[in-house]
Amino acid sequence: MITEIDKASKNIAKNLVKLRQIAGLTQNQLAQLSNMTRASVALLESGQSNPTLEILLKITLGLKISINELLSTPFAECQFTKASDVPIDLKSKNGVILRKLLPDKIPATEMDEIILEPDSNMTGSPHIEGTREYFTCTKGEILIGILGQKFLLKRGDVLSFPGDNPHSYKNTGKITAHGISVVFFASSAK
Description:
Blueprint: H1 4-22, H2 27-34, H3 38-46, H4 53-63, H5 67-71, E1 96-100, E2 109-116, E3 121-124, E4 132-139, E5 141-146, E6 149-154, E7 158-162, E8 167-171, E9 177-184
Antiparallel strand pairs: 1-2, 2-9, 3-8, 4-7, 4-9, 5-6, 5-8
């Protein structure tokens, strides 16, 4: 029976090999950067170890990556997701569709397409403190309210704002409006 610890060890092993190769490092070079032995790095890459938090932090510091990158489920090189398999958010109602653009969970990141029928609106949920949101209008026009200000975005316009404040989106035009929301959570979030 495969346990959660076994799965985590396999994830660490696959991610570590890939990230080390991307950095162009040998096991020995990574060991030196991480203040570890080459044998310790090799053991981690084998997937047979149960590393301590201290070991994981040494590796992440050596590679200059987040611990999430080391622990997350490894991504396949290519992944095709049919439109019918892309999740629609529960906020989708009353002329609003919020469609996920990233079928996998990526640490500290969300990317959604927001589709608003004429006269429809959506209130955005404030995210954790320090979050930054970027919104690009791709079709029509969308009025965004944030911090008592209103910004009318038309096709190609981009608004960057603190996502930890209440915000809203409204289609003020006569055609269906589309936009892309990209959220980067503060480093301690998600």
